[in-house]
């Protein structure tokens, strides 16, 4: 596996970015745009997914990256729960729910797979590469 030098090159971050864009667009439409708390919760959780992937990568430590990925994965669960709430109260259609839920699930699976990969790796990360 080639070395990834930028978080922007991670497929899971790219997919999380696409998901974030779709969620943000949805929050400008009524009735979600009028429900400030729900809108902010959607934006917060979806933003945290990509932000935690980026932050963990930039920390330069395998273990810190794994920890941040765990948080990002948790945010995907929070987002999926919020999507259920939006569906249940009639804010989003079944079709939009299905599309966004599937994307969030895919991101969660990608994160989980990367956590497994990192946990099996002997590489310590840039932060600790020259330490014994």
Structure characterization notes:
The structure is a single chain. By secondary structure, the chain is an all-alpha fold. The chain has one domain (10-120): de novo design (two linked rop proteins), CATH 1.20.1440. It has helices at 11-26, 36-58, 62-88, 94-120. Helix 1 (11-26) runs antiparallel to helix 4, helix 2 packs antiparallel against helix 3 and helix 3 (62-88) runs antiparallel to helix 4 (94-120).
Biggest sheet character: none
Ends distance = 24 Å
Overall mean pLDDT: 91
Strand tally, please? Answer: 0
Q: What structural class is derived from the secondary structure elements? A: mainly alpha
Helix content: over 70%
User: What is the CATH topology assignment?
Assistant: de novo design (two linked rop proteins)
Radius of gyration in whole Å, from Cα? 16 Å
Number of domains: 1
Gist of the model:
The protein has 132 residues and is mainly α. It has helices at 11-26, 36-58, 62-88, 94-120. The radius of gyration is 16 Å and the shape is elongated.
